[in-house]
């Protein structure tokens, strides 16, 4: 075992008073090291965690993390619960140039839990029932997925329509989300001339499902503004929000989440905390669209590093 990976019972930076997610940075091409940034203390803490060593770590559903070793071919994948330290081995999988995102249909303790591995710029995903010996590959053009109230929802990359993903044994089914008027749930994007680049994620927020859309400036890696949409999965309808009230969103392509600011006075409500390819951590005010740079945070993050908000 390499130096820095030795077991230490205090290596996980847990704090009994911590009620917010730290930003986890998996550093280097092979995720050799990991740094935690605590927004309440405005400090970075580097930790050598044996379970994380040389693994890309990202958040998935129900408090679990995904650990993938990109040095191995095929890739070694597992689920890890930072609360109980329980680890569940997943089938190995073919490596891709981009890193996988992981989604769970139900908690891993449920006998009918399915695992999905997904790369947003590819036209396929891999899925298996927890306990299966291999992943099944399905050709499908999706742009983003999420697990919400023990169901998987996704946005189709070409049509922009939203679907619910269901499973029957080894088959994956897509069900279009149609309202009582026969209209398919569809949220239009800005035209390419108005949005040279954008990114988005589906986020559970205090019992609601939100689509958070990040829009960038022309000829720049800087974020211009965000748009937020609330999706009613029962009525199959959506509305754009100008405020999220006493809530905060933590945005990342490898693990977004949302929290209420009640009893969390150090968090800025009606805001979005995000870190993008400029390597810094920002706060976006939803009401006035202003951005505030948190200066002494992630300035040393490299271009091959990835970031995820996680709960410990």
TrEMBL record:
Region Disordered, annotated ranges: 1-33
Source organism, top-level taxon: Eukaryota
Domain KIB1-4 beta-propeller: from-to ranges: 36-284
A Pfam family matched in the record: Beta-prop_KIB1-4
Sequence intervals crossing the membrane: none
PANTHER family, per the entry: DUF295 DOMAIN-CONTAINING PROTEIN
Protein's name according to its UniProt entry: KIB1-4 beta-propeller domain-containing protein
Organism whose genome encodes this protein: Handroanthus impetiginosus
């Amino acid at each position: 075992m390499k130096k820095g990976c030795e077991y230490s019972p205090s290596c996980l930076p847990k704090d009994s008073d911590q009620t917010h997610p730290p930003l986890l940075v998996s550093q280097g091409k092979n995720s050799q090291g990991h740094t935690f940034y605590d927004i309440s203390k405005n400090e970075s803490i580097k930790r050598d965690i044996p379970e994380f060593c040389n693994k890309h770590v990202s958040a998935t559903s129900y408090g679990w993390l995904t650990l993938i070793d990109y040095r191995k071919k095929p890739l070694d994948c597992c689920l890890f619960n930072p609360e109980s330290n329980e680890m569940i081995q997943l089938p190995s999988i073919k490596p891709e140039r981009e890193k996988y995102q992981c989604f769970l249909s139900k908690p891993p303790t449920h006998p009918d839990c399915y695992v999905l591995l997904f790369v947003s710029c590819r036209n396929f995903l891999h899925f298996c029932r927890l306990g299966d010996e291999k992943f099944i590959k399905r050709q499908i053009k999706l742009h983003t997925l999420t697990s919400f109230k023990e169901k998987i929802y996704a946005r189709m990359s070409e049509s922009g329509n939203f679907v619910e993903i269901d499973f029957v044994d080894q088959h994956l089914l897509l069900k279009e989300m149609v309202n009582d008027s026969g209209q398919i749930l569809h949220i239009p994007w800005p035209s390419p001339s108005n949005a040279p680049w954008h990114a988005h994620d589906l986020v559970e927020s205090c019992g609601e499902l939100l689509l958070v859309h990040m829009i960038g400036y022309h000829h720049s890696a800087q974020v211009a503004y965000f748009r937020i949409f609330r999706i009613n999965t029962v009525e199959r309808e959506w509305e754009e929000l100008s405020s999220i009230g006493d809530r905060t969103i933590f945005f990342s392509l490898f693990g977004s989440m949302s929290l209420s600011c009640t009893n969390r006075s150090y968090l800025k409500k009606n805001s979005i905390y995000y870190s993008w390819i400029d390597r810094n951590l920002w706060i976006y005010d939803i009401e006035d669209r202003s951005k505030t740079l948190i200066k002494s945070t992630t300035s040393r993050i490299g271009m091959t590093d990835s970031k995820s908000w996680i709960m410990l």
